[in-house]
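FORM 7B: Structural annotation worksheet

SECTION A. Query
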Amino acid sequence: MELKRHFEKLINPLLIIFVAATLRLIPHPPNFAPIAAMALFGGSYLDRSYALLIPIIALFLSDLIIGFYSPLVMISVYSSFILAGLIGLWLKKRKSPRTVVLAATASSVLFFLITNFAVWLGGWYPRSLAGLMESYTLALPFFRNTILGDLFYTGVFFSGYELVLRFIKKPALASQGESLRS
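SECTION B. Predicted structure
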């Protein structure tokens, strides 16, 4: 029973969010990062009052180390992750492999649309429809990494956490069955 209590303290949503923020700090392919998965996971597993706040704080703390960038782009990045957290809140009572994959994909698409619009709005491309399309077109290689990273990390966080929960609960259920047989 003591081992179970230690395991429950060790493996909780805050630990996974900490791991996600830390993973952002190690070298990785551009946009292949765990941040959207962290926001989805936080929305799905944290208490509603912390579901959006904790992942954004983790993102901010990792930005303190990585460095800040264009305020307009930062606002768009943080906004897209808040939206991912809101999708996670929606997902909380609808978790299934299918809905988790759809949520991760939707988060990737929102991030792509919002952040590249901000880059265009910030003047990196001509302020015309052609400039906006160029912004989106040139970002497609990054979008591929975004989707792959979001799907990978979402799968690891959600399935890993659920497996650990089942591992913890299974011995408890087994010991309850044994006491019923005694």
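SECTION C. Observations
The radius of gyration is 19 Å. DSSP finds eight helices and no strands in the chain.

SECTION D. Sign-off
Analyst initials: ____
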